[in-house]
Amino acid sequence: MVRPKTEEEIELLRINGDLVSRTLAEVGKLVAPGVTTAKLNEVAETFIRDHGAVPSFKGFDGFPAALCMSVNDVVVHGFPSDRPLEEGDIVSVDCGTLYKGYNGDSAYTFPVGEVDAETRKLLDVTKASLYKGIEAAVAGNRTGDIGYAVQSYAESFGFSVVRELEGHGVGKQMHEDPGIPNYGRKGHGARLVDGMTICIEPMICAGGRGVYLARNGWAVHTADHKNAAHYELTVVVRKGRAQQLSTFDYIEKDGSIKF
Ligand code: MG
Ligand code: MG
Question: Does residue 242 lie within any of the structural domains?
Answer without folding.
Answer: yes
